[in-house]
Design a protein that fits this description.
- With 161 residues, the protein is mainly alpha-helical.
- It has two domains: 12-92, no CATH class; 123-156, no CATH class.
- It has ten helices and no strands.
Length: 161
């Protein structure tokens, strides 16, 4: 029995159709997400999670999956796809950054910095700093030690010298 506080849930038949569409889109990738679960229970959880989402918005979520999602969504992801795209083009337009002179200048500055970084030879200063810290007796993780030794071409025997 549903109370006034409980939103109506989608029918199991609607969830079967939804799951069939998602299996059609993603094949075993979607089915494998529930391999160790009871499908009826999973569909019931999806029905609860999507209970406040009208069917037309679920159709929009399916369209978004088909056109933009190479991997199957989880319930929270699918719900967000349905709701975030329910406002139509306005929601999509708001999320896009506006193009103005400040944006162009910032992009150009970033591109210059990236170009300079690509031209600079790789630095091993980080490895020298870690090596010095280790030599002073600071405790480092085994990964830090292995990384600085590898970067500086040190082996365990040369460390003692």
């Amino acid at each position: 029995m549903q109370t006034a506080a409980t939103p109506p849930s989608h029918s199991d038949q609607a969830m079967q159709r939804l799951f069939a569409r998602l299996v059609g889109f993603y094949g075993a990738r979607f089915a494998d997400m529930w391999a160790n679960s009871d499908e009826l229970t999973v569909r019931g959880i999806w029905a609860e999670g999507l209970s406040a989402v009208p069917l037309d918005q679920i159709r929009i979520g399916l369209d978004v999956c088909l056109s933009t999602k190479p991997f199957p969504p989880t319930l929270p992801e699918f719900r967000l796809l349905c709701l975030s795209n329910s406002r139509g083009r306005e929601a999509q337009h708001v999320s896009r950054p506006t193009k103005d002179a400040a944006t162009d200048a910032a992009r150009d500055e970033c591109m210059e910095l990236l170009s300079a970084m690509r031209l600079a030879p790789p630095s091993r200063q980080w490895a020298h700093r870690l090596h010095e810290r280790h030599q002073r007796g600071e405790r480092l993780s085994t990964i830090q030690i292995a990384m600085y030794r590898r970067a500086l071409d040190l082996d365990a025997n040369s460390e003692a010298a």
